[in-house]
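Retro notes, structure queue

What went well: the backlog is down to a handful. What didn't: a couple of records were mislabeled last round, so from now on we paste the full input next to the output in the thread. Example, using SESN3 protein from Alectura lathami:
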Amino acid sequence: QDYTWENHGFSLVNRLYSDIGHLLDEKFRMVYNLTYNTMATHEDVDTTMLRRALFNYVHCMYGIRYDDYDYGEVNQLLERSLKVYIKTVTCYPERTTKRMYDSYWRQFKHSEKVHVNLLLMEARMQAELLYALRAITRH
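Corresponding output:
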């Protein structure tokens, strides 16, 4: 069964350390919802599916999968070079190079690529928190 931040992690964190859940939740939501509604040269683009695919792909790499998410979206929206970059940044950040950063989404603005990095790091942090919180719940 799914163990999610929204349904389980948030409330447990708040019980363990008052108000930290609200701060973490605000941070996760802010980064997740951050968008200029652009993609490269295209304006007024709804990037919700892309942001969700990035977040869920990171969680998937950490063994967290959601029954209500169609992982086919990940393969549709994330090209191979981006997947390689994501895996490196989230699993082996010390191996990330400028060359790797430059190799994906060449036509995109740096601000859009930085946003991808923010999403990746927040998704990783949330996945790590979920593992720890689930262990506490089981104990």
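Agreed that this is the format going forward. Reviewer comment attached to the example: The chain has one domain: 8-138.
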